[in-house]
Write a structure and sequence with these properties.
By secondary structure, the chain is of the alpha+beta class. The chain contains 3 helices and 5 strands. InterPro entries: SH3_retrovirus.
Length: about 120
């Protein structure tokens, strides 16, 4: 505590949190076009106002000065995959040691005729 007051970190947002960015009114935006875009928070920069966000529809990242963040929804939460144990039992995996691989490759090299 440098000045006797705890720092305020309410403006810090979660990485990957769902956010809404306002699309400003312009001649290109028609009456029934959406006025917000859904984005994901990527981070901050020292010399730029706002947050760096990722636009999934455009596959671009930009700094946006004004946005609303839904902290309770994070990117990984939206795309969670649920795996049931029944599905895993049908898979068959074999384990092969690195030592076995190296000895087999050395044996193959020895069996080749030399010039």
């Amino acid at each position: 505590m440098m000045f006797g007051v705890k720092p305020d970190i309410r403006h810090i947002r979660k990485f990957g949190a769902l956010a809404y960015v306002h699309v400003p009114a312009s001649p290109a935006r028609k009456k029934h076009d959406p006025n917000v875009k859904i984005v994901f928070v990527l981070g901050y920069a020292e010399d730029v106002v706002g947050c760096k966000v990722y636009f999934p529809n455009e596959h671009t990242a930009k700094f946006v000065p004004d946005l609303r963040v839904a902290d309770n929804v994070v990117y990984r939460d939206r795309h969670a995959a649920e795996v049931e144990e029944d599905h895993l039992s049908s898979l068959y995996f074999t384990h092969r040691d690195d030592e076995e691989q190296t000895t087999e490759s050395e044996e193959e090299g020895m069996n080749e005729p030399s010039d």
